[in-house]
Design a protein that fits this description.
- The chain has a single domain, classed as Orthogonal Bundle (ADP-ribosylglycohydrolase fold), CATH 1.10.4080.10.
- With 410 residues, the protein is mostly helical.
- It is built from 21 helices and two strands.
- α6 packs across α7 (162-172) and α12 packs across α13.
- It is globular and about 55 Å long.
- 55% of the residues lie in helices and 2% in strands.
- A two-stranded antiparallel sheet has the order 1-2.
């Protein structure tokens, strides 16, 4: 392929590909509308799972928020690094296995060998997100959408639609705070294109991880109500994604909604599968993981054999990252082990670690999150939204609780 192909030729080719029929022997059925997703999923309309009255609403929601932010902060310094580079750095700096936030107080030889202040977003020491280089919790797109979706509920209530979320994006998210599928959808919104076409038009990232990272907040707002969580997640994902990009957000929302109300996360994983279109690639991938007796190490190795993290379109794809989330949650006995496992596995480290942290944090509650993961929360949480620059974990929790109660009342 030419290095600088003609943009019009690329758009023409993309349009032809989009309008072409699926091959006749294609093994999967993957709808992208809410009604069709409901019909394709075995238990989308399931009743409540568990009794939310048996858990502390504040402790659970705060646990999910803290876990998400902690996971994102843990994975941020090594985002875009290969699995081998991550492992090498951790071992050379005596931080393997991961048991706390990553620090850069290491020998100059390690700094130089692993070029530790350069990742997919950071370009030097000044933009480092190692724990010993930050005074406040830095903004990150993986957390910005938590603010966005709470704000949309505050504005629109339980009847919010995809278009309402798009309006919040335009009003609250600077364009350069969006990436991949979200930036394409944002551009399409500005061009006057309406959802769901915003997720389709000229969008090569439409099954990537961007929607998946937006899922946990819907689960936290709909504890014990996975159908409601899934519905909101689909409405959200339709703005920028199709097929497995949508299902990934749906799955994470369901998983977060039921995690606090089941005995263990292996059970939560199995229950969550029935909310996915049964004949989708995501459902097949997650079933394989849940039905496997192989170790986490063996399963992670298989993911790396199937997907090449050195290729951007695979590194940030929803399918390998969702698989790594499932492996970490299925095999870990603590939030520390889960976060360490998923970050050490490579791929999109801050994104998938944020999801693992959210699910595990909701499962155990804020009071049970170990002190090493709680330490940053004495500092302000910064956001990339135009009208929300700084908040505290307490204030964010209270807003989430109020949003959750508004959904339930309406």
């Amino acid at each position: 392929m030419r290095e600088n192909p003609d943009p019009d030729a690329v758009r023409t080719l993309a349009a032809r590909a989009r309008s072409s029929p699926l091959r006749t022997n294609y093994a999967y059925s993957e709808p992208s509308t809410l009604d069709k997703i409901k019909r394709a999923a075995p238990s989308f309309e399931s009743p409540h799972i568990g009794d939310p009255g048996t858990i502390s609403e504040k402790d659970t929601i705060q646990g999910g928020l803290m876990g998400a932010i902690a996971g994102c902060l843990l994975g941020s310094p090594v985002q875009g690094w290969s699995r081998e580079r991550i492992h090498g750095f951790l071992q050379e700096s005596n931080q393997y296995p991961i048991e706390r936030f990553l620090h850069a107080d290491v020998a100059d030889s390690v700094i130089n060998q692993y070029n530790i202040f350069h990742n997919i977003e950071a370009t030097g020491r000044d933009s480092s997100t190692f724990i010993n280089h930050i005074e406040k919790i830095p903004p990150d797109d993986d957390i910005d959408y938590t603010f966005v979706n709470i704000r949309t509920v505050e504005t629109c209530g339980a009847e919010l639609q995809t278009e309402d979320i798009g309006t919040t994006w335009i009003k609250q998210l600077p364009a350069l705070r969006t990436y991949t599928a979200e930036r394409v959808a944002y551009r399409n919104l500005l061009d006057g294109i309406s959802p769901p076409e915003t997720g389709l038009r000229d969008n090569p990232y439409r099954e990537h991880i961007g929607a998946l990272i937006r899922g946990p907040i819907w689960g936290l707002l709909c504890l014990g109500e996975p159908t409601h969580a899934a519905t909101f997640a689909v409405r959200d994902a339709l703005l920028s994604h199709v097929k497995n990009g949508i299902y990934a957000e749906l799955w994470v929302a369901v998983l977060t909604a039921i995690a606090p109300l089941v005995g263990d996360l292996t059970e939560a994983l199995r229950l969550s599968l029935s909310f996915l279109p049964a004949e989708s690639r995501l459902a097949a991938s997650l079933r394989s993981i849940c039905n496997s007796d192989a170790s986490a190490h063996t399963q992670i190795k298989r993911i790396h054999q199937q997907w090449d993290e050195s290729i951007q379109r695979e590194w940030s794809h929803a399918l390998p990252n969702a698989a790594l989330i499932a492996i970490a949650l299925d095999h870990a006995d603590s939030i520390t082990e889960a976060l360490g496992t998923v970050v050490q596995s490579g791929f999109d480290t801050d994104s998938h670690a944020a999801v693992v942290g959210a699910v595990y944090g909701a499962h155990i509650g804020a009071a049970s999150i170990p002190s090493q993961w709680r330490s940053p929360f004495s500092s302000p949480i910064l956001s990339g939204l135009s009208s929300e620059h700084s908040t505290s974990i307490e204030a964010l929790t209270q807003r989430a609780i109020a949003a959750s109660r508004r959904i339930k009342m309406e």
